[in-house]
Specification:
By secondary structure, this protein is mostly helical. It is 58% helix and 0% strand. It is built from 20 helices and no strands. It has helices at residues 6-30, 39-53, 72-77, 79-83, 86-111, 120-132, 136-144, 148-157, 170-178, 183-191, 195-215, 217-225, 246-254, 261-283, 287-301, 313-322, 331-344, 364-372, 377-384, 386-389. α5 (86-111) runs parallel beside α16 and α16 (313-322) packs antiparallel against α17 (331-344).
Length: 429
């Protein structure tokens, strides 16, 4: 448990609240002057307009020729944004993004056991939210109006220790119904013995598909039956420098715009290996480690991985700050600082173009530079070295074996009770 001084928290609270308020106001005031401001949200809003107008969802181009890549169910959820004026919708979505970030931080603190539901937790969450807003993946989510912060909060909700079993998995299924990547977490639930949660996630996922078929039958047939759901080229070509995934690296290495089939098979093997590593970490009592392995493995093996997909660095930093190690050492703290710095100032920006304005990803040296400075590199190294550092963690009792909070402790067995020593009586006089 983290020890927090209420007096310090009283000071940090207003400072964090002011920092967040200033960040939101700066984004709202200067947003229109920032390149790519709310570009992705404009696509979401355009999808909502397409739904209302009865236009073909996957045959309509939006801002700068962009295409809608999410499910019909996701398009249905964008309709409220289409009913609002652009500025009001952007303001609402920006606030929703920060709220989702704060919710993710609160969930991560609870899941890691770093804090409880005490009143001081809100102040700690506010301070962490202000710090997390400096990370490049978070900034790009807010800048572009992306949905990844909301999806992360939904997935983390299903790993909250106090969540009743009858609800576990539903939020992940809904997240997968919006964007398919969270299905990887369903596999993690299944292979770690949480079958009920996995089945409930699949039922929720199926329910989102049924909603799509009921409200947008033609678009649903296009998405599910005509291969639109796995057409990564609708997002961008695989070889672009901003694609930080393993298939993207292989596509650039081969000089091809689309990753070949064998590259996708390699990514599939890596995905299975990462799933096995996550399950192994869970069996050793480190469920949070397994969850983070799955989160970053999904980014590693996905055909397309943008910087804003790496918002999972927020719970990763929280875990790194609170993890218990067998021996006291400064290495975890050093890694915490280096990881935060890596994601605050990503080096991949340097590799965007060369001295002659030729994109580096067309050269072997540029491809290597971009790959070695990508957003998934720290996670890939950590996953590869998992057998080395995981045994150095103090064992954590699996949550399923812990007594529920608030339940009175059972009486200790007779042999486990400390020996009662009778008080020594000193004779008077």
């Amino acid at each position: 448990m983290i020890s927090t001084d209420p007096r310090r928290l009283t000071v940090l609270g207003p400072v964090a609240a002011i920092a967040i308020a200033l960040a939101v106001q700066a984004l709202l005031i200067f947003g229109p002057f920032i390149p790519f401001w709310m570009n992705d949200f404009a696509v979401y809003q355009g999808a909502g307009h397409a739904v209302l107008a009865g236009l073909p969802l996957y045959g309509t181009t939006f801002l700068n020729g962009a295409l809608f890549t999410y499910s019909p169910f996701a398009a249905v959820l964008t309709v409220p944004a289409a009913l609002l004026p652009a500025v009001a919708a952007q303001f609402t979505w920006t606030v929703a993004g920060y709220l989702a970030l704060s919710a993710s931080i609160w969930l991560a603190l609870r899941i890691t056991g770093a804090t409880t539901a005490r009143r001081h937790t809100a102040v700690l969450v506010a301070a962490c939210t202000a710090g997390a807003s400096l990370l490049a993946p978070v900034q790009l989510n807010v800048l572009l109006g992306q949905i990844n912060l909301v999806l992360m909060a939904l997935v983390l909700l299903d790993f909250l220790p106090s969540l009743p079993e009858r609800y576990r998995g539903i939020a992940t299924g809904i997240a997968a119904g919006i964007k398919l990547t969270p299905l990887f977490f369903v596999a993690y639930l299944f292979f770690t013995g949480r079958r009920r949660a996995a089945y409930q996630a699949l039922v929720a996922f199926a329910a989102t598909a049924l909603v799509g078929f009921a409200l947008l039958p033609a678009d649903s047939r296009t998405y599910w039956f005509q291969g639109t759901f796995y057409d990564a080229t609708r997002v961008m070509t695989n070889d672009l420098v901003v694609n930080h995934s393993l298939p993207g690296f292989l596509a650039r290495l081969l000089g091809e715009s689309t990753a070949p089939l064998w590259a996708l098979l390699v990514a599939g093997v890596v995905a299975v290996a990462c799933l096995a590593a996550a399950v192994w970490a869970w069996h050793r009592g480190h469920d949070v480690v397994g969850l983070l392995v799955i989160a970053f493995a999904a980014q590693l093996v996905s055909p397309v991985t943008w910087v804003h997909h790496a918002v999972w660095v927020v719970p990763a930093l929280i875990w790194l700050a609170t993890a218990g190690w067998r021996r006291a050492t400064a290495l975890p703290r050093a890694l915490l600082v280096l990881t935060a710095a890596w994601y605050c100032a990503p080096l991949w920006i340097v590799g965007m173009s060369g001295p002659t304005e030729v994109p580096f990803h067309f050269t072997p040296a540029g491809n290597l530079f971009v790959t070695l400075t990508g957003i998934v590199v720290p996670a890939a190294i950590a996953i590869a070295l998992l057998p080395v550092w995981l045994p150095r963690l103090r064992p954590v009792e699996p949550e399923r074996a812990r007594p529920e909070q608030g339940r009175p402790e059972q009486a200790q067995p007779e042999q486990d009770r400390p020996e009662q020593v009778p008080p020594q009586v000193t004779p008077a006089g």
